[in-house]
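My hope is that you will study the protein record below before we discuss the fold together.
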Amino acid sequence: MEFSQSTKKNIICDSVILYTGIFTNLGVLIHLHKTWISRNRVQVYVLVLCVADCLGLILRQCVEVGLHTTETWNTGEIGCKIIMSISMAGTFLAHLVLVTFNIDNLVVVTYKQSPSPVRLCQLACAVLMTALFIGVKMHLYHIEIHPIYATLRQCTPFGRISVDQELIYGVVDVVAVVLFPGLLIAVCGALAFIHRRNVYSTEKGVRQQYDDNDDAKRDLWDMKYDILYTTTLDCLFTVCWLPYSIMKMFLLTHTGLFHERNHYLKIWDALTYLSMVNHCFNPLVYGLFFIVYGRKKTPVHI
């Protein structure tokens, strides 16, 4: 099988993003192993986020490379359902972990503590929602004969539903994976930032505001580093995923443009790669914050 130039370019881009993301996330995981502190809430979230980022890269990029290097679907109906339903699972989980991180920041700033059971419940909800996400996609994906090339088979969620239902599916998919988590991230992140600023400006002797025995062991002064770190992750999420979401919504409502004009396809490819680079940037942000702020914080922080 001879690959076209565009296919070669796509395979190279997918491979570079995959190996770069795995390398950077593994670096953070090794560092966490060496500096691990029991019941450190920030390290817990960074650990889960790194694992989710690795899963997102491995599952999605490997599937993309497989799609670029094959002409027809060869793994059957069961393989279609399993492979395509989990391809975005790691990415969806990473977005939900970022949501729980922002919610936990708000809890700490508001109640001056973050008990471990609360964090575990939040993360468990993220995992359960990811499992539900996989189940819905597994139900929809199936093998269809290619509409133009009758000898080729494709794995698709479409074909058994109407055109209007296809549009609804595409919109719901964008909302579930990006826009809804993004809304929660923006609201919780903004509330945590504003509340921390208001409380700190009105309270003196901030280091006496927390019980020394609680799980979080935070004060409002050190919380600014955690909020700044999370806000940076939130901004990266927005920069990487919002253009992708807008373009996907545009193409869902203007399906003919995707096939008629090649520059739309190039823009779509570029924005798709930008969205996946988010998994590579997250560990770099952790490294940057550890280098810049690590020595200014007490041992229980980043």
